[in-house]
Amino acid sequence: NDVATGYALYRTQAADEEYLDAFRTLQKLLKGADAPPYFYYLMLDAAAKVERWPEAWTAWTQWQRRRPRE
Q: Residue 64 and residue 45: Cα distance in Å, rounded?
C-alpha cells in the first residue's frame, strides 16, 4: 500500500472526473494504517460525488476524529 502512488492515482482520477474510481482508490488507501487523516476528507468528497452517503458520513466522522486540532 504505497500512499504516494495511491494519492497520485486518486488525483488523476479526480481530475479526469472518474469519481467512482477515485472513491475506490481511497477505500483501498484507507485500509492501510499509514494513510494521513486528510484522506478521510478526500473520501468524504469522493463518496458524496458518487452519492454514497453512508460512506460519506463515515468518512466525515473519521476525519473529525483524526484531523489536527488547533
A: 14
Nearest CA-CA partner of 28 in 57, 51, 3, 58: 3
Contact between residue 34 and residue 40 where contact means Cβ atoms under 8 Å apart: no
Q: In 3D, which of 30, 69, 27, 17 has the Cα closest to residue 47? A: 27
Rounded to whole angstroms, what are the CA distances from 35 to 12, 22, 52, 62? 18, 15, 21, 12
Predicted model pTM = 0.89
Could you tell me if 67 and 37 are in contact, meaning their C-beta atoms sit under 8 angstroms apart? yes
Q: Closest by alpha carbon to 45, among 67, 17, 6?
A: 17
Condensed to tens digits (0 to 9), the pLDDT of residues 10-61 reads 999 999 999 999 999 999 999 977 889 999 999 999 999 999 999 999 999 9
